TrEMBL record:
Transmembrane segments: none annotated. Its EC number is 3.4.24.-. It comes from Parabacteroides absconsus. SUPFAM superfamilies: Metalloproteases ('zincins'), catalytic domain. One of its GO terms (molecular function) is hydrolase activity. Belongs to the peptidase M3 family. This is M3 family metallopeptidase.
Amino acid sequence: MNKLVLIAGAAFALTACNAPKDQKTEAGNPFFTEYTTPFGVPPFDQIKIEHYLPAFEKGIQEQAQEIDAIVNQKSVPDFENTIVALDQSGKLLRKVSAVFYGQNSANTSDEMQELSKQLSPMLSKHEDDISLNPKLFERVKQVYENKDQMGLNKEQEKLLEETYKDFVRSGANLDEEKQAKLRELNSEIAMLQLTFGQNMLKETNDFQLIIDKEEDLSGLPASLIANAAETAKAAGQEGKWIFTLHNPSVMPFLQYADNRSLREKIFNGYINRGNNNNDADNKEVVRQLIEKRLEKAKLMGYKNYASFVLEDRMAKTPENVYKLLDEVWTPALAKAKEELADIQTEIKKEGQSFEAEGWDWRYYFEKAKKAKFDLDENQIRPYLPLNQVREGAFYVANKLYGITFTELKDIPLPHPDALAFECKDKDGTHLGVLYMDFFPRASKRGGAWCGTYRSQTYVDGKRQGPVVTIVCNFTQPAAGQPALLSADEASTLFHEFGHALNNLFKDVHYYGVSGVPRDFVELPSQIMEHWVFEPEVLKVYAKHYQTGEVIPADLIEKLDKSGKYGQGFATTEYLAASLLDMDYHVLTEIPADMDVMKFEEETLGKRGLLKQIPSRYRTTYFNHTMGGGYTAGYYSYIWAEVLDADAYEAYKETGDIFNQEVAGKFRKYILTPGGIDDAMDMYKNFRGKEPGTEPLLKNRGLK
């Protein structure tokens, strides 16, 4: 759903305030003047915490005045004076929101988190003041009902349709009493989602596995040990080693640490985030959250929250989602059981007889893969220096679309660790600015994502390029060494770069048609992953960081043969999370004493999930759904994979993975038009047909 007020990176709710104009507060506040920076990027070096609240307050006030002007004008409602005026309102609010929420995810602080709590009810009220304004809705409705007489083009028709639909889905047709209840629910949901995310960050940062005996480091790669020593030194514990729950630390520890009891300790720390009965516990937060969401859905006339959400997605219904998930679940679980048998074989090889547990899977799976394919992930890392992988992504984009990326030095950065690049089209015209911020820190939430500090738009009839950011949590480089990526991290970089290309190529005139359905948005990112390990791409960027040697052909062959091994685990843990997300949001009743961890155990247990494979995200740290971004939508990755696997076949069928005719169609029909067309129509315009699941199952080695 397109929000009436757009905020970069998330659907944050927004709020009117009658705060008086404060000249002292405005003085020196970068948000109150036009940016004079290169390409108009935010002046991050000038923005201080005290600048945000006054800018939010004034932005809210300005937009409220703009809405009043739309409502109180005497002229007959038409597309320009109502729909476009609404779409273009809230310039300052959009400006400050993009920076604040981008920074709150990538470089937060206690002060920012406190401010986000203060802003949440303000912004929720403001959005409701717009979407539940009866006079405003009446004008929108008049335009909508007379659209056939207005001579609108396709993009304008779509904006009108989406604007009207957003009002209806935001409660504009509810009576006054129900609207008051909806306001209350929206505010409560926003605060619960915010609390969930803050608790998760705290739980992730608070855990430390401290090792003081060198023998307990047995099996770990030297680079990981060096990073752990640096972490300990920074924490004032020089001479020790500290491992954390950030993925670049915990995952390789589980993969290589010989000490089984320490693997168990960090594994349990990881899967119990938000489930420790402390001040950051998320169990009751989740129960209240799904309760409030269900209450909102019923208020809006739906039987459950998933039905409300999915009506506006490609999937349309929960039944369609379950159909796809169930179709993939059976072969994925069968493959996972085969992998478990291999793991048990490796345990027996060591003369052990214990049954594998969750903290054993990655460790013994690595041994099984080495036994089957003579491949150790640490053989690959030296050929995947971060800078070269990044240049590999740039190379693929250049081969496909002719675009270039040039590093920018004298430009404000969102964090000192970030890099900036200008993206130019093949004719040399400016497409946008791309920031890349790769390494974990306590101020950054986990995972990887792509967002914008400014969305693509038009100003005075001229396209204004976006300011895009890619944020990751890759393995920190050891002192004096380059950052060496795992194969999974290389795929992640290409994935997020695909999102960036979507933002950079977008060319729409209105904010209200800039987005696509959540279950379509992963197509541009996931298709990029197909190029990462193509031999002709590896030969360009995969070069040994010390010798410059191109990755050997036999290593590429091993990588290719082993590529589908492990898809039982990977697919099953992903599907478990997708099913868990759906199962919460198809509920039609939430008991006051509901035990969410018991619900998780039962809903996944009945499907036969192996005890050694926890859901990729367990309930209390499942920020994708509980944080609000992918609510009743985590299935989107596999839904989009049906599309991306089929789409990549279009390149393969030509015998040229860089076929520029196919790439041109993909750019024209998928990457450029935003949400002007229906998502499936966009796909069929590119491919000429609807996709099937065969390429997906083949791609994952499940067929």
